[in-house]
Structure formats: structure tokens, C-alpha cells
Design goal:
Elements: H1 3-26, H2 39-49, H3 54-67, H4 71-76, H5 79-86, H6 93-108, H7 117-121, H8 128-139, H9 148-158, H10 167-179, H11 188-202, H12 220-224, E1 240-249, E2 256-260, E3 271-272, E4 275-276, H13 279-284, E5 295-296, E6 300-303, E7 307-316, E8 328-330, H14 332-335, H15 342-353
Parallel strand pairs: 1-7
Antiparallel strand pairs: 1-4, 2-3, 2-8, 5-7, 6-7
Helix pairs in contact: 1-11, 2-3, 2-8, 8-11, 9-11
Bound molecules: iron/sulfur cluster.
Length: about 350
């Protein structure tokens, strides 16, 4: 048998055993959603953890569990309540799908999470890896997860050189991930959690902690000292930039005028200052008697993952209603309870201190 094949068969033979043992001894056991490992809390945490760090998610997770202790509570909530509670966590399509998913489970499954990956994947916002995380952690199903952290661990252990921006290579890696699963269903929760823990705390993107890794004896990239070469990603994410002019309309009662944004596009379903393509387009929409003394705030930058937003705020005090009124006037107490995009909330909070 070639050296390469020997290394790979050692990985297939030992990976799960090493990982399960390590997770039980050194893995994370105090995450709030690990207390009961019921599908509702695991699902909620999995959706929140997409694109967001554990430290931030914990705070939001507690808030959601307090307000919506069960899936049925979440399903019954209004869209505004959900968006308001999600406000600041970003990637708002997650909140929209979360709500839609809770309503589907309440309606089609009598409030009980389906137990198979196939059924779960049919639900809004649940992809293959999230479905596998729910079924393996909660029901002990032998299903492989493959999120960004896991791709990093597996490509390094196996020196898998396929490009992770190609669906075919991801599919190949997924097949390998299935071969590594433990035989016993009872090991699945520790195995899945172990993969998440390893990717988050040991096999990190930078400053990888190979000396403390349970895989150090079988990890091929560690042996060859090529850890930094994995995972392979050839396509760079294209960044774009967008300017948005925002109308901060304040009336004599110190109320701010906010509009609910449409269900698509940036800041979907959130309450926001009226947004325009340019300052000129903004001023065209303001009645002549209110247009006299606009105050142009210094533009500020808000960075999203794929986009830089340059926000230009035009403030008009003692305003009369807009030409086309579709929003509502809200006091500081009222708007603080609504779902607002993070930069708008911050802007209004700062302004209210002046
Ligand atoms: S040995 Fe190093 S590169 Fe390999 S899985 Fe562990 S931390 Fe990652």
C-alpha cells in the first residue's frame, strides 16, 4: 500500500474515535443551546451562528428564548416582533426565513421538528449542513455536516486540494465526510459538536493550534507543514460599493419618520429612514416648505461582507409630511422597539443624545 493510501486509511479508521474522545474531554459543553439539545434551540442557534460569532449569538439566543420559549410562540409572533429582536445581528434574510420556517413547522408538522434531513431541507432557511446538524445533534442520525469550519478541518486533515468555490469539489468532500462518521449513533452528538468545536477553537483560519489538536498524528497537512495551503479557494469574493442617501425627518414633537422596507433587497422588512439613490432624489421628495434648511451630515461608511455602504444622512427639522407618506412618525421610545438596521439604530441613538 502506498504511503498516501496508508495515511488516508489511518484517517478513515481513527478520525471519529479521536474526535469523539477529544470532544467529551476538551470540547465545549456550556453553550446555552447545549443544555437541552432540543431541535428548537439547536435550530435557532444554528441559524444565528451562520455568519455570526458565538459571543454575539449567545446574547441574541437568550433574548429569543425569553420572548419565544417554544417554536409555537415564535410562529405566532408578528414579523415586526421577530425583526425587532433580530435587529443588529445582520443578514436579515435569516430572520425572515426563521419566522417562515417556524410557521411552516407549526402548520405542517403540528409544531414538532421533522426528524429527517430530507424533510428539514424543504423548510425555509435550512440547508444541508444545518439539517445534518439538527438531526445528528438531536436525534443521533449519521449525517455529515459541512459548513465553513468543517471544510477547513477536513481539507487540512485530508490535504483535499479541490477548490471549495466549486460545487463538484464540495460534493466530493461531502462524500469523504460521510466516510468519516462514527459507526455508533450514540457518538453522533459528540462527533458533530466536536467538528464544530475543533473548527472554532483549534483548527482556526489563522494561528492554527496543531499542538493541541487530537488530529495531529493523522493530519496530513500538519505532517507536511502545508496547513496554510488549505482550504483551496481560487475565486475571490467581489466587493462592491453603494451610496445611499437617508432622510432624517424630525418633527416638532421630536418624532422621527421611519418607513418599513420591502421584503427584498438590503435591510428587507426593517424600519429605516427613507432611502434614496442620491441627495438630489431625496430633496425632490421633500415638500418645498420643508426643503429650506437641510443639514447634510458627514457621510459614514458601513461595511457589509460583500459591500461597502456609504451612508449620506440629510436631516430636516420641523418637517411637514412627505409628499408620499408610507411610513410613520415614531418617538425615541417607539423606534427603539422596532427592527432597525444596525447603522441606523446607532445613528439615531447617537443623535438622541444630542
Ligand atoms: S493538526 Fe492542525 S491543521 Fe490538522 S486538523 Fe489539527 S489544527 Fe487543523
Amino acid at each position: 500500500m502506498s504511503k498516501e493510501l496508508k495515511s488516508r486509511s489511518a484517517i478513515v479508521k481513527n478520525f471519529a474515535t479521536l474526535l469523539v474522545k477529544w470532544q467529551r474531554q476538551y470540547g465545549r459543553h456550556d453553550l446555552p443551546w447545549q443544555v437541552s439539545l432540543d431541535p428548537y434551540s439547536v435550530w435557532l442557534s444554528e441559524i444565528m451562528l451562520q455568519q455570526t460569532q458565538v459571543a454575539t449569538v449567545k446574547e441574541y439566543f437568550f433574548r429569543f428564548m425569553q420572548k419565544f420559549p417554544t417554536l409555537k410562540d415564535l410562529a405566532r409572533a408578528s414579523n415586526d416582533e421577530v425583526m425587532s429582536l433580530w435587529s443588529g445581528l445582520g443578514y436579515y434574510s435569516r430572520a425572515k426565513n426563521l419566522h417562515a420556517c417556524a410557521q411552516r413547522i407549526a402548520k405542517d408538522y403540528k409544531g414538532e421538528f421533522p426528524k429527517t434531513v430530507l424533510e428539514l431541507q424543504e423548510l425555509p432557511g435550512i440547508g444541508p449542513s444545518t439539517a445534518a446538524a439538527i438531526t445528528s445533534l438531536c436525534f443521533g442520525s449519521r449525517e455529515a455536516i459541512l459548513d465553513g469550519n468543517v471544510k477547513r478541518v477536513l481539507t487540512r486533515v485530508l490535504t483535499f486540494s479541490g477548490d471549495m468555490t466549486s460545487a463538484t469539489h464540495v460534493k466530493n468532500l461531502f462524500q469523504m465526510a460521510q466516510q468519516l462518521l462514527p459507526d455508533k449513533k450514540s457518538d453522533m452528538p459528540a462527533y458533530t459538536q466536536g467538528l464544530m468545536d475543533l473548527g472554532a477553537t483549534v483548527c482556526t483560519p489563522k494561528k492554527t493550534s496543531c499542538a493541541n489538536c487530537p488530529m495531529s498524528k493523522i493530519c496530513i497537512s500538519h505532517r507536511h507543514q502545508t496547513v496554510e495551503n488549505f482550504p483551496v479557494r481560487t475565486k475571490k469574493i467581489k466587493r462592491s460599493a453603494q451610496s445611499i442617501s437617508l432622510l432624517m425627518f424630525r418633527n416638532a414633537k421630536n418624532q422621527i419618520y421611519l418607513e418599513k422596507r420591502s421584503a427584498n433587497g438590503i435591510w428587507a422588512n426593517l424600519y429605516c429612514l427613507p432611502a434614496f439613490e442620491s441627495d438630489q432624489a431625496l430633496l425632490n421628495d421633500v415638500p418645498a416648505q420643508s426643503r429650506k434648511e437641510p443639514f447634510f451630515h458627514a457621510p459614514f461608511l458601513h461595511v457589509l461582507t460583500h459591500k461597502d455602504l456609504y451612508l449620506h444622512v440629510v436631516e430636516i427639522k420641523n418637517a411637514k409630511p412627505l409628499l408620499k407618506q408610507t411610513g410613520q412618525w415614531l418617538t425615541p421610545k417607539e423606534w427603539q422597539l422596532m427592527g432597525l438596521p444596525a447603522p441606523i439604530r446607532l445613528l439615531l441613538l447617537n443623535e438622541s443624545k444630542h
